[in-house]
């Protein structure tokens, strides 16, 4: 095997599709000319991410040379740290979404999405960079042809695969108080300007689920990208959209136009906590009426919607639970496929991290923030919100996901008081 490897991770979901973290697709030819691609199956169960043997027992096929790693999740980055310690004769270079930096200086990497333990000392053979692959090797961003070889030794030819096609690496809104993407430096922003949709020619017979990667679809992306996406029985798209008025106008124009047929599309939206007071507190820049309008447009156009809702707030009022009840009653039937419930996580560098408390979470040398703890009174209000959701879900035709985790976190919060 070539002494230079470009490592990408993949895992199989409970539903049977393979999640390919294909971070080197935009620089396929550049990487292929320097070494070999190597795929590694990573642990899909989050609870096992914090077990040391998850990482120490995973082998590498080389012990000397250079390994470039595309790290999409924090466990990928921790694997880079473990491998660098296990293989002192190997140069390990890690970059990718989770390695994003708060500053553009490659000589002074400061992580964007987490913090380092104060006493951490990285191995001398480990380099972590916030640069893109193109920036690291000194070529223009998105100057190559997007390509991907499905690892046939792991993935069955007919299995569905989940792959990424990057539009940009930012979020144009960047103001939500629980998100730290606002700290991303402008000089590391990258945006694809030529949409060739090369995945349409991917040599794979199974379904291809393509994530259009961006923090949030802009009105421009909605108008210009959605109508031009390739349409095929084996292609499905997923992306995230703010339920803001400008986005709703753009989406309505696209679905109402007489242009090409829209592809199979699933939109992720932030329901967060559907009370105008709470949405304003989060600095979302939207209202409950805006979210309902998004659901109306998508329901009529046949666009699937996966909603995301956060619980664990420490400032809920009775009127917020009443607003949630009103929202659920007004929601169009069957307009939302699923509602993912999440317990509020306080990420470093966010306002939530400053205002809340909880037990710190670490993965090796990386501090990831904490799951928030709330008072008994707030716990009851959050539970009341869960009760409303459970009551309305069968009537409105959406599936609840993450319920057990929220119930477990709620119990921990109560015990912490």
CATH topology of the largest domain: Transcription Regulator spoIIAA
Weakly predicted, low-confidence segments: none
Mean pLDDT: 94
The assigned CATH architecture of the largest domain is 2-Layer Sandwich
Determine the structural class based on helices, strands and strand pairing.
alpha/beta
| Overall 3D form | globular
Report the sheet-strand fraction: 15-25%
| Count of spatially separate domains | 2
Number of helices, counting only DSSP H or I runs of 4 residues or more: 12
Helix content: 25-40%
Short key terms for the protein model shown above:
globular, single chain, 4-stranded antiparallel β-sheet, Transcription Regulator spoIIAA, 23% strand, 417 residues, alpha/beta
Tell me what the structure shows.
With 417 residues, the chain is an alpha/beta fold. It folds into two domains: 4-137; 216-416, Transcription Regulator spoIIAA (2-Layer Sandwich), CATH 3.30.750. Helix content is 28%, strand content 23%. The chain contains twelve helices and 17 strands. It has helices at 28-32, 53-56, 74-86, 133-137, 219-224, 245-256, 276-281, 288-301, 318-330, 351-355, 376-396, 403-416; strands spanning 4-12, 18-21, 36-41, 65-70, 90-95, 115-116, 126-129, 161-166, 208-213, 235-240, 265-272, 304-311, 338-343, 345-346, 358-363, 366-372, 399-401. The strands form two sheets. Strands 1, 2, 3, 4, 5, 7, 8, 9, 10, 11, 12, 13 and 17 form a 13-stranded mixed beta sheet that branches. It is globular. The mean pLDDT is 94.
């Amino acid at each position: 095997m070539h002494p230079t490897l470009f490592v990408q991770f993949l895992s199989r979901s409970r539903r049977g599709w393979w999640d390919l973290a294909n971070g080197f697709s935009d620089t396929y030819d550049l990487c292929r000319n320097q070494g070999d691609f190597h795929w590694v199956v990573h642990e899909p169960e989050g609870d096992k991410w914090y077990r040391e043997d998850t990482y120490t027992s995973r082998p590498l096929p080389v012990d000397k040379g250079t390994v470039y790693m595309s790290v999409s999740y924090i466990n990928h980055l921790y694997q880079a740290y473990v491998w660098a310690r296990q293989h002192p004769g190997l140069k390990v270079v890690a970059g990718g979404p989770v390695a994003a930096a708060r500053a553009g200086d490659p000589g002074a990497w400061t992580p964007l999405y987490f913090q380092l333990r104060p006493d951490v000392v990285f191995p001398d053979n480990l380099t972590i960079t916030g640069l893109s692959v193109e920036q690291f090797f000194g070529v223009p961003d998105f100057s190559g042809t997007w390509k991907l070889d499905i690892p046939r030794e792991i993935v069955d030819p007919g299995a569905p695969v989940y792959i990424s096609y990057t539009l940009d690496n930012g979020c144009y809104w960047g103001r939500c108080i629980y998100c730290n993407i606002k700290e991303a430096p402008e000089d590391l922003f990258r945006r694809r300007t030529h949409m060739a949709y090369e995945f349409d020619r991917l040599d794979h017979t199974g379904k291809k689920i393509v994530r259009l990667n961006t923090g949030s679809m802009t009105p421009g992306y909605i108008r210009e990208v959605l109508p031009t996406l390739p349409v095929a029985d084996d292609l499905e798209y997923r992306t995230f959209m703010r339920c803001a008025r400008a986005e709703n106008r753009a989406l309505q124009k696209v679905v109402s136009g007489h242009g090409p047929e829209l592809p199979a599309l699933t939109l992720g939206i932030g329901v967060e906590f559907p009370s105008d007071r709470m949405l304003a507190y989060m600095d979302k820049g939207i209202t409950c009426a805006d979210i309902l309008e998004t659901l109306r447009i998508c329901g009529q156009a046949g666009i699937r919607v996966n909603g995301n809702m956060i619980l664990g707030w420490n400032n809920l009022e009775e009127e917020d639970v009443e607003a949630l009840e009103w929202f659920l009653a007004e929601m169009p039937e069957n307009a939302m496929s699923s509602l993912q419930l999440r317990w509020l996580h306080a990420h470093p560098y966010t306002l939530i991290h400053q205002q809340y408390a909880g037990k710190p979470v670490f993965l090796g040398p990386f501090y990831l923030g904490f799951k928030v703890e709330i008072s008994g009174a707030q716990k009851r209000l959050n539970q009341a919100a869960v009760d409303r959701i459970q009551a309305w879900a069968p009537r409105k035709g959406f599936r609840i996901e993450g319920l057990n985790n929220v119930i477990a976190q709620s119990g921990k919060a109560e015990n912490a008081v």
